[in-house]
Amino acid sequence: MSPRLKEKYVSEVTSKLNDRFSIKNPMQTPKLTKIVVNMGCKGAVENKGLIDSAVRDMATITGQKPTIRKARRSIAGFKLREGMPIGCAVTLRGDRMWEFADRLIAVVLPRIRDFRGVKEKLDGRGNYTMGLSEQSVFPEIDFDRLDHTQGMDITFVTTAPTDEQGFFLLKELGMPFRNEEDED
């Protein structure tokens, strides 16, 4: 069975994108290619167990084993040496990507306290990155087993050539963007 958000993309969103941006070739229709979830571990230099718990939490959240990210160079001020583990990341593609995006949009973001929407800033190439301050907003995480709260970055990588097309794609998929009128 195909993921719900993928079916919505195929049945509704592609035709809206093609109409809005007058795209004739269906291969040029913007689509979501991957989602990268990155978790940097503050304090991993002093406590090696933080990396293990971050890897466990990320594997639980994404359903995929993360890769451990190591420091590229030594920084004496941070007591950091080249090659030390400092975080973990997962790249989601295919059905797993669609399932994660659906859960994030429909379940996780509405659970955040005082949530008014995500910022409308894309990176200039149609991709969108958002940050979450803690992993406990995911329902998969057992609050009692949580060692420490950890933030994460989630990047939606699209084939959209412009921010306007990338924004429209994510908006149609259900991303709850903040309205500019609602700002203070």
Give an overview of the whole structure.
- This protein is of the alpha+beta class.
- The protein has one domain: 50s Ribosomal Protein L5, Chain: A.
- The protein is 33% helix and 18% strand.
- It has 4 helices and 5 strands; from the N terminus they run αβαββαββα.
- A 5-stranded antiparallel sheet has the order 2-3-1-5-4.
- Helix 1 (4-20) packs across helix 4 (163-173).
Supply the CATH architecture.
Answer: 2-Layer Sandwich
Strand order of the largest sheet: 2-3-1-5-4
Average of pLDDT: 85
The major beta sheet can be summarized as: 5 strands, antiparallel
CATH class: Alpha Beta
Radius of gyration: 18 Å
Shape assignment:
globular
In CATH, the topology is named 50s Ribosomal Protein L5, Chain: A
Cα separation of the termini: 43 Å
The structure class reads alpha+beta
CATH homologous superfamily descriptor: Ribosomal protein L5
Poorly predicted runs of 5 or more residues: none
Number of helices: 4
Give the SSE order as H and E letters: HEHEEHEEH
Question: Main attributes?
Answer:
alpha+beta, 50s Ribosomal Protein L5, Chain: A, 5-stranded antiparallel β-sheet, 4 helices, 5 strands
